[in-house]
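Many introductory courses stop at the sequence. We go one step further.
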Amino acid sequence: KRQGEGTGLGLATVFGIVKHSGGHIQVASEVDQGTAFNIYLPRSEPAEPGELRRNLQRDLRDLERSGTETVLVVEDEGAVRDQAVLVLESYGYTVLDAANGRAALEISRSHTGPVDLLLTDVIMPGLNGRELADLLQPERPEILVLYMSGYTGDAIENHGVLAEGVAFIPKPFTLEDLLRQVRKVLDKER
């Protein structure tokens, strides 16, 4: 549009529709790279855990084995956390979950068994994912870390939050991608 021909992309309208529908919008923007708007909407009918497991089993026949490890999931977006917990539990993992870094530290400290993997969002209020991992690793030297974020890996590296080469899964991800990446990180280090 030429200057003065309209007021933008109608984001206020989109925001209103998405919020009214029980969803949310995630925005990631980088100078000279562009902007991405991810819109998340709830399912029209919630899937039963058994249905989710059957669908995933059908789609993931080539995953060699179910998990037996313990995963600590830390994610401030409740819907993302709930889906990750549901899919990991349905594949045999023991899952501990927290909505933020401080809660994750408390859960880890009160859990008497092993915690094999920390699956954490990178950007969270309070402690970010890297800070959380840095605090947990001295207490649990065996813990592996898989970071997730709606920001690209390059954007996170450029801002100094994560080092190059760390295990990372971009959001949004499919449940299949999540299971594969969790298994990859656990198997690579064992």
